[in-house]
């Protein structure tokens, strides 16, 4: 009432003001209560969410191992925002989980991802998480970044990962994930970076990847992906980095790659990609790195490569690229690393290379590049590594190379460089690796080669360097590997070398070094190999060498060392090979040598060692070869030598050994070569030799052995030379009497004697006086007939390999008898030097008799003594691919050369007969060509002095029943005088003669190489190559439409159906054959190189049907095809290590 009274007395304005205050007070009270209720509700929701998140994390922590749980010690309580590696938003929800680099061990199976639906970043890289990726990871609906790299996760990527539509970064690299790449990844439309490299994913790249329009980085490298690169990849126009390297991808690079104009890095190396490098690659002008190494690309380098002016790395290493290096490469002025090695590139290095002034690494090794090394190379002053090895570079090394003062590695080996080294070499003080091996360089070595103190690897193998060892080498303590062998270096070895703490390999062999061995070598504590053979080193072997604890190989052979073998050498625990042969060492072999338990090869041949062969040598259980020949060892062969159970080669020849051959030697089941010739051994050859099944070569000649030969392959196939000069041996070898015939004769004599005794006793009483004289006459007559018959049979069975007499009357009559007076039915063929007949000299012994005219009065035959020496030299040649020459006799103005008989006749005969040619399959032809190469390699490089065939044709390549090649008519030309009227005939056969013989009458080994090229082509073509040879001599530019290889191969064997491996071999043979036919003999390879190349399986550069003769005439020999698909990773990185270490 009072209040109403008060209101009635107030003015209207005051009433309004007061009423407003009451309204505001009521309103504030209402909304305050509402806000309080809302806040309570919000707090309850977040408390529940945090509780779920905490529970999920703590439950997962409990599944980890104890060490991992201890690392997460902060994970306790109800506030996850304080946990290690956890970050929350303003409302307390977990948004970031970063547990990388903590070494956590466990699985993800215990983590409830459904409780972490606010997480935008989940990083667990560099831990030890194993097991599979749970499908529940798809519940992280807000996830922006997922990083599980460098763990041990396995299994497949769950398809549910495709539901993470907000995902921008996905990293699963360096795990053990497998299976196919899921197509559901194509649903991640916001993805910017995808890295699933270094796993085991297989199958093809899904085309759904092309739906990732925002993708900037795609890394699938080092998996097992196969198939081709999908064309749809050209739709990823935002890509900056594409790395598909180290997989098994095949096919072509799609031309649509040119659409990826934003691309900065393209890595496709170590795959099986093939075809041409598309010119569209030149559109990728943003590229800084392009690596297509170790694939099967062929064709030329596209000129459009010059458009990529931003490139810092260009690598085409290990393909089949051909043609010249394009001059446009000079436009790559930003290039730092250029790798074009191991291809078939030819031509010269373009002068435009001088523009690449930023170049740090230039590798062009293993190509067919030729011409001089350009002076412009000196403009590349930033070069650190230069690899030009295994090419055909000629001329001298340019003096401008002295400008490359930053050079760390220089490889010029395996070329045809000649002349002296420029003085600028002394400026290359930063060199760590210098290899000039296998050239024709001469003059003295640069004296300051190690002035900078950085030299680690130095090799000049097989050149013509003269003069002293560079003075700077004496104190070059950085040396690790030093190879100076095969030169003409002089000087005193005692003073030229110092102490090298890091040196592990040194070879000074085949030089003209003098002096004595220094104690300093012992101070090279890491030395594993020391070779100083074939020099003029004198003095004694230092006893201190026994302290070289790391030494594995010691070769001091072919020097002038004297004194005794120091017993201290038995203290080298790591020694594997010891070669002291061909010196003047005296005394006994010290017993301590038997302590070398790891010794595999011991060669003490050609010294003046004496005494008995030591029993302690049998303690060297690891010995594979033991050569004690040409010494003065006496007494018996020790029985204990049979305890060396892995022995493969045993040579005790040319000693003074006596006694019988121990039967225990039969225990050497691994023995392949046994030579005990030229001793005083007697008795029989033990029957235990029949257990030596690995034995392939035996020589027991010049002893006093008797009895039957063991029934083992080595004896059954042995030539007479290896058993001759043993008076009592018998067996099935030509020249030895049959063991059964000797027994039969003794038995017959015994029977006859008994008959005579019985007759005498029966008629003794009655006819004693009257018949005694008659009986004696009869017995005497019969004995004379037996002796005469025996002598005749012995003469008939004389080993025709021993008949060197010009007056071989008995053997001549045997030839006449065996051929029935040279009846035409025994005619085999006609060669360059006469008519060939087949003759069975004795039972089971068939030979080929070559009849030639012997015009001695015309002076065609060399004098008797030198001629006999020639014959003996030819008879001593033994090689599986050379026809055995048994001997010679002359009678009635006719000469007879006796050879091993070959069942299938000549190679030409086989090729000319369609039926035989069809049976002569590709693998057999390849084997024949390898056999010919092996024979010529043996003649040129393993005979001393080297021997030249002079007339190699398909007519004097003979085939045995297994289609094994045997070179014949070898040495026949040597039996005639060089100045005889027949010299043009001797020097070769038309169609096989090397072109240089038109100007010279002195054949060389390279003439044989040329003839080999003709024969090799003839074998795979099926007839004489004819015009193809003239093409080789002419310029390739004159051939408008090059003929394809498949069209010239022997069509009787259907070249289009060639097995892949046979195709590889045939292409390699054709390639090598054309190299052999080069007009310049200096450019032809040696037969040793050819023989080695033919032993290597080289995958095809391109399909056989696409290879032309023009391509095969590429002069490169070093690199015939692309690298093998298997082992690519090793091949590629072994190269990188070599040129980057």
Automatic annotation (TrEMBL):
It is found in: Membrane. Its EC number is 2.7.11.1. Keywords: ATP-binding, Glycoprotein, Kinase, Leucine-rich repeat, Membrane, Nucleotide-binding, Phosphoprotein, Receptor, Repeat, Serine/threonine-protein kinase, Signal, Transferase, Transmembrane, Transmembrane helix. The keyword Repeat applies. Pfam families: LRR_1, LRR_8, LRRNT_2, Pkinase. The chain crosses the membrane at residues 755-779. Residues 1-27 form the signal peptide. Gene3D superfamilies: Phosphorylase Kinase, domain 1 (3.30.200.20), Ribonuclease Inhibitor (3.80.10.10), Transferase(Phosphotransferase) domain 1 (1.10.510.10). SMART domains: LRR_TYP. It catalyses: L-threonyl-[protein] + ATP = O-phospho-L-threonyl-[protein] + ADP + H(+); L-seryl-[protein] + ATP = O-phospho-L-seryl-[protein] + ADP + H(+). Its main location: membrane. It is an enzyme of class 2 (transferase). It is a single-pass type I membrane protein. ATP binds at residue 850. Residues 822-1096 form the Protein kinase domain. This is non-specific serine/threonine protein kinase. It comes from Eucalyptus globulus (Tasmanian blue gum). The lineage of its organism: Eukaryota, Viridiplantae, Streptophyta, Embryophyta, Tracheophyta.
């Amino acid at each position: 009432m009072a209040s109403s009274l008060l209101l009635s007395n107030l003015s209207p304005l005051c009433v309004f003001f007061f009423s407003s205050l009451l309204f505001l007070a009521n309103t504030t009270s209402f909304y305050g209560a509402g806000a309080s209720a809302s806040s309570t509700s919000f707090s309850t929701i977040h408390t529940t969410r945090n509780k779920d998140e905490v529970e999920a994390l703590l439950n997962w922590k409990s599944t980890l191992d104890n060490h991992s749980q201890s690392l997460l010690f902060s994970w306790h309580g109800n506030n996850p925002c304080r946990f290690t590696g956890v970050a929350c938003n303003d409302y307390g929800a977990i948004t970031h989980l970063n547990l990388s680099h903590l070494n956590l061990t466990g699985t993800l199976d215990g983590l409830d991802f459904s409780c972490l639906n606010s997480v935008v970043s989940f990083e667990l890289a560099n831990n030890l998480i194993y097991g599979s990726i749970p499908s529940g990871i798809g519940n992280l609906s807000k996830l922006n970044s997922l990083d599980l790299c460098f763990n041990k996760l396995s299994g497949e990527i769950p398809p549910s990962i495709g539901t993470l539509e907000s995902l921008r970064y996905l990293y699963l690299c360096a795990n053990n994930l497998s299976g196919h790449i899921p197509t559901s990844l194509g649903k991640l439309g916001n993805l910017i970076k995808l890295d699933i490299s270094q796993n085991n994913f297989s199958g093809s790249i899904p085309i759904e990847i092309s739906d990732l329009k925002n993708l900037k980085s795609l890394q699938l490298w080092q998996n097992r992906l196969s198939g081709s690169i999908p064309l749809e990849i050209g739709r990823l126009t935002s890509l900056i980095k594409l790395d598909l390297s180290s997989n098994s991808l095949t096919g072509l690079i799609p031309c649509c790659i040119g659409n990826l104009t934003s691309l900065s890095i393209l890595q496709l190396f170590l795959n099986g990609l093939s075809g041409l490098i598309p010119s569209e690659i030149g559109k990728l002008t943003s590229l800084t790195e392009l690596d297509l190494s170790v694939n099967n690309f062929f064709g030329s380098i596209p000129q459009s490569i010059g458009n990529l002016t931003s490139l810092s790395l260009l690598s085409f290493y290990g393909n089949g690229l051909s043609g010249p290096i394009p001059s446009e490469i000079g436009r790559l002025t930003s290039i730092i690393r250029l790798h074009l090695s191991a291809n078939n590139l030819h031509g010269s290095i373009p002068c435009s290379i001088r523009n690449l002034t930023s170049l740090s690494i230039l590798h062009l090794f293993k190509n067919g590049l030729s011409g001089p090394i350009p002076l412009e190379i000196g403009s590349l002053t930033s070069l650190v590594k230069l690899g030009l090895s295994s090419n055909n570079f000629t001329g001298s090394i340019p003096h401008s190379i002295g400008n490359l003062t930053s050079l760390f590695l220089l490889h010029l080996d395996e070329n045809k460089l000649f002349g002296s080294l420029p003085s600028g070499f002394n400026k290359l003080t930063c060199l760590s690796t210098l290899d000039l091996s296998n050239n024709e360089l001469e003059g003295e070595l640069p004296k300051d080669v190690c002035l900078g103190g950085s030299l680690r690897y130095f090799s000049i193998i097989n050149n013509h360097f003269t003069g002293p060892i560079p003075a700077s080498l004496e104190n070059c303590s950085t040396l690790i590997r030093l190879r100076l062998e095969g030169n003409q270096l002089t000087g005193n070895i005692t003073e030229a070398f110092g102490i090298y703490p890091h040196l592990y390999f040194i070879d000074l062999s085949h030089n003209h070094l003098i002096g004595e061995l220094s104690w300093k070598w012992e101070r090279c504590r890491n030395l594993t190999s020391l070779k100083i053979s074939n020099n003029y080193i004198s003095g004694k072997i230092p006893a201190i060498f026994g302290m070289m604890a790391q030494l594995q190989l010691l070769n001091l052979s072919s020097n002038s060392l004297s004194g005794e073998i120091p017993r201290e050498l038995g203290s080298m625990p790591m020694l594997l090979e010891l070669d002291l042969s061909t010196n003047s060492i005296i005394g006994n072999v010290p017993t301590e040598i038997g302590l070398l338990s790891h010794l595999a090869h011991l060669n003490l041949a050609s010294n003046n060692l004496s005494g008995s062969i030591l029993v302690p040598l049998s303690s060297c259980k690891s010995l594979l070869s033991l050569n004690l020949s040409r010494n003065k060892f006496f007494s018996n062969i020790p029985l204990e030598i049979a305890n060396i159970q892995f022995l493969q080669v045993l040579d005790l020849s040319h000693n003074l050994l006596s006694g019988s051959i121990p039967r225990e030697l039969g225990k050497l089941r691994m023995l392949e070569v046994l030579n005990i010739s030229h001793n005083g051994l007697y008795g029989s050859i033990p029957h235990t030799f029949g257990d030596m099944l690995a034995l392939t070569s035996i020589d027991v000649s010049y002893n006093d052995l008797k009895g039957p030969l063991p029934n083992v392959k080595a004896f059954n196939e042995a030539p007479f030379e290896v058993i001759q000069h043993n008076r009592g041996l018998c067996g099935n070898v030509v020249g030895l009497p049959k063991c059964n015939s000797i027994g039969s004769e003794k038995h017959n004599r015994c029977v006859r004697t008994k008959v005579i005794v019985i007759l005498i006793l029966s008629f003794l009483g009655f006819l004693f006086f009257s018949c005694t004289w008659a009986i004696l006459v009869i017995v005497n007559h019969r004995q004379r007939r037996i002796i005469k018959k025996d002598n005749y049979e012995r003469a008939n069975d004389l080993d025709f390999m021993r008949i060197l007499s010009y007056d071989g009357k008995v053997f001549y009559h045997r030839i006449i008898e065996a051929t029935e007076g040279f009846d035409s039915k025994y005619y085999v063929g006609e060669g360059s030097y006469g008519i060939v007949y087949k003759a069975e000299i004795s039972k089971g012994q068939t030979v080929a008799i070559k009849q030639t005219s012997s015009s001695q009065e015309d002076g065609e035959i060399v004098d008797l003594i030198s001629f006999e020496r020639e014959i003996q030299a030819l008879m001593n040649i033994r090689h599986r691919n050379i026809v055995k020459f048994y001997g010679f006799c002359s009678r009635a103005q006719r000469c007879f050369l006796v050879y091993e008989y070959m069942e299938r006749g000549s190679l030409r005969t086989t090729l000319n007969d369609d039926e035989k040619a069809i049976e002569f399959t590709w693998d057999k032809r390849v084997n024949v060509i390898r056999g010919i190469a092996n024979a010529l390699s043996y003649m040129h490089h393993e005979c001393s002095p080297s021997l030249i065939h002079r007339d190699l044709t398909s007519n004097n390549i003979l085939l045995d029943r297994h289609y094994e090649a045997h070179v014949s008519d070898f040495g026949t030309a040597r039996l005639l005088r060089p100045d005889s009227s027949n010299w043009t005939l001797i020097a070769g056969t038309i169609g096989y003669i090397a072109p240089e013989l038109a100007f010279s009458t002195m054949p060389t080994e390279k003439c044989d190489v040329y003839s080999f090229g003709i024969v090799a082509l003839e074998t795979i073509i099926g007839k004489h190559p004819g015009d193809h040879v003239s093409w080789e001599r002419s310029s390739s530019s004159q051939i408008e439409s090059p003929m394809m290889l498949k069209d010239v191969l022997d069509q009787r064997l259907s070249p289009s159906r060639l097995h892949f491996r046979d195709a590889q071999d045939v292409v390699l043979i054709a390639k090598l054959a054309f190299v052999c036919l080069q007009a310049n003999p200096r450019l032809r390879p040696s037969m040793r190189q050819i023989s080695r190349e033919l032993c290597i399986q080289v995958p095809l550069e391109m399909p056989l049907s696409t290879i032309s003769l023009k391509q095969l005439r590429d002069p490169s020999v070093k690199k015939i095809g692309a690298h093998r698909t298997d082992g690519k990773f090793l091949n590629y990185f072994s190269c990188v290590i070599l040129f980057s270490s």
